[in-house]
Specification:
With 466 residues, the chain is an alpha/beta fold. It is 42% helix and 12% strand. The chain has 17 helices and eleven strands.
């Protein structure tokens, strides 16, 4: 299988390249890039780690598969001693006191972090324009958005500035930018990877997710990060996914798709046409295809944003300039809190905090928030029933192609609706992978909970077929 990680590993072992030269090359590309993907470079640490890898190789010592492989980190992960800004004014000078579990596992495996990557502030956005570091520019067409909120991570991978990057997916924040930049992006089953050290947006759907140029690299990175963590009670032990187990499509007999996604007035005509062509190609391979009923896109988006805004309002209440963040002094303590949060949060973050406090407030929580929780349960139940009939659910990643930079900021409602095809799988906590085939922004492959292996298996089937 294609794998940049395996290719670079072999080059290092064979002494065709040095780790120091590789890391320096990537750092130079990141420094020169004009796509606004970099919040801060970890150049000193990266070069020190690279030198140690070169010494091991020179001494004839064995190195691990990820040892010496350069990667990027979305700037919402704690990495001890580095700036962790969440692309916000509030945390622009904040340095991490510890390292996130998922990132620590990669460091323990020898991977080399190069960069903290630009994103929508606190993950609030679908375009990576809500950031103090400048809008992330699409890797294919810099006039278009890079996608969000993990836009910097996706663009760095697509441009070859990092071998892989670690994003965060709450309602599509890995999958959508992966689609916009024609790479792979995985949202694993909720709980497969520890969230400890990831700044919380919506705790019930936040997932750590890898972005890469191949399915094999996604598999390698996923295996390293997975596992139970005593610091995150939602995690569980999971079996390693072997390369041979995803190399064929055995066991996949039936796939489904949601017909209301495809019949929606919101879907771009070309995206619809390309998706239906992909379905016909799958049928031609002898796989049964079923059209499934699902919740309307507006219901999914409303349910997701009701719950996500409520959770982010709660999670961000700790950021008041006292323990964390840039404090702006005012006449008294109450005014200091108010001014600090008003001036340092982005407009989009304030919109979500206000919305979240509204749905949690007395008189509204029963009518809105509890209804959202009930709908989430219905969505999960719908998925359980669907996966009794089909092995895989296939869908477009987005209803349309990436907008021009600036357009999303003018119309937040349109930005929320661009998540129509991703948020349902987040609410269901399902493993879902974006693949760069099938439509202009790729296809989304989902399977039942804990069945991440099946998702990767079907992705390999599609790669060779579409």
């Amino acid at each position: 299988m294609d794998s940049q990680i395996k290719q670079i590993h072999q080059q290092l072992v064979n002494k065709q390249i040095t780790c120091t030269a590789l890391v320096q090359e990537k750092l130079d590309l990141l420094k020169q890039n004009t796509h606004h993907t970099v919040n801060s470079l970890l150049d000193t640490q990266a070069l020190e780690l690279a030198a140690k890898v070169d010494v091991k190789i020179a001494n004839g010592e064995t190195i691990g598969l990820l040892e010496g492989i350069p990667f990027g980190i979305k700037d919402v992960y704690m990495v001890q001693g580095t700036y962790t800004t969440a692309s916000s004014d509030l945390l622009k000078n904040y340095k991490s006191a510890y390292t996130a579990t998922a990132i620590q596992k990669l460091l323990d495996a020898g991977a080399i972090p190069l960069v903290k990557e630009n994103c929508d502030s606190f993950g609030h956005g679908s375009s990576s324009e809500n950031t103090i570091f400048g809008a992330v520019k699409n890797a294919i067409n810099p006039d278009l958005v890079g996608g969000g909120s993990s836009g910097g991570s996706a663009v760095n991978v697509a441009k070859g500035y990092t071998v892989f990057s670690i994003g965060g997916d709450t309602g599509g924040s890995v999958r959508q930018p992966a689609g916009y930049n024609n790479i792979y992006g995985l949202k694993p089953t909720y709980g497969r990877i520890s969230r400890f050290g990831l700044m919380a947006y919506a705790s019930s759907t936040d997932c750590v997710g890898p972005l890469a140029k191949s399915i094999e690299d996604i598999r390698i990175v996923l295996n390293v990060m997975s596992g139970k963590d005593i610091k995150d009670q939602t995690t569980y032990a999971s079996a390693e996914i072997k390369d041979e187990s995803i190399s064929n499509s055995e066991g996949i007999k039936t796939i489904g798709y949601f017909k209301n996604f495809i019949e929606s007035d919101a879907i771009d005509a070309q995206v619809k046409s390309d998706f239906l062509v992909s379905i016909e190609k799958i049928k031609a391979k002898g796989i049964e295809v079923k059209a499934l009923d699902f919740f309307e896109a507006n219901t999914l988006v409303s349910t997701y944003y009701t719950l996500a805004m409520a959770e982010t309002a709660s999670n961000l209440s700790r950021l008041d300039g006292t323990n964390y963040g840039e404090r702006i002094e005012s006449g008294n303590l109450k005014e200091t809190y108010s001014v600090t949060r008003s001036e340092n949060f982005s407009e989009e973050s304030k919109r979500r905090i206000v919305g979240g406090n509204q749905v949690l407030s007395q008189g509204f929580s029963d009518e809105i928030y509890l209804k959202g929780l009930a709908l989430r349960d219905q969505i999960s139940e719908n998925f359980e029933n669907d996966f009794k009939e089909v092995d895989i659910i296939l869908s477009p990643v987005t209803p349309s192609t990436p907008p021009k930079i600036g357009d999303s900021l003018k119309d937040p409602h349109a930005m929320y609706l661009s998540d129509a095809y991703t948020v349902g799988f987040s609410l269901g906590q399902l493993p879902t992978l974006t693949v760069p085939q099938g439509t202009a922004t790729g296809l989304q492959i989902s399977a039942a909970k804990n069945n991440d292996e099946l998702v990767l298996k079907f992705a390999n089937f599609l790669k060779d077929m579409i």
